[in-house]
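re: ur question from yesterday

yeah so i grabbed the chain u mentioned. its 201 aa long if i counted rite. heres the sequnce exactly as i have it in my notes:
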Amino acid sequence: MKLHYALFAALAIVAACSGSASKSDETSGQTTATTSGAGGGTSGAGGGPTDLDRCNAACDALIACGVEYQKAECGVGCVARPVFLACLKQTSNDCNALALCAWAQFAKDQCGGGPGPAGSATCAQTATCQGTCNVSNPTAQCACACIAAMSPAAALALLVNDQCALAECPSCLPQTFNGVACNACHAQKCANQAALCSSKK
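ran it thru and got these structure tokens back, copy pasting raw so excuse formatting
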């Protein structure tokens, strides 16, 4: 039910794929952000896929799995996120694996490094943690603790939950952030995403 200052949390991949800053919800606990960057990337030996090709494929996969990224911005943003890009080159287009890459980028950007989710908390527990941060301690440090305590298995559910807040709620964006309003908006506009988060063990 809360969103927390996770607006920078999801930023890891969101930044790579989305276009705005962060958010999290009571049932999920992640945030994503997007950043624009130059892109095109380099091609592999023998004319393999470019970094932008890889990023576009990852964006398509995550969008198909329910993450509210803007397709036009996602691939370019991804190319500019080195941790996410390196991670996706080592994984398949499995959505939870890609979400873990996004959280790893978030950890690099907002938490001083680390793998991202490495605990046992559920998506719902993490979302609640984020929501509490939103209101009582809207800092990256608080959000980072929530994400680090989350089970890796909940990475996608939280990303879906958090990105909905970023996409649907101006009060969840960094430049206009208001924790109470963000939590309320998320509860109203991201009920399906929160339900998914709650169902993820």
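noticed a couple things. The mean pLDDT is 81. also Residues 95-110 form the longest helix (16 residues).
anyway ttyl
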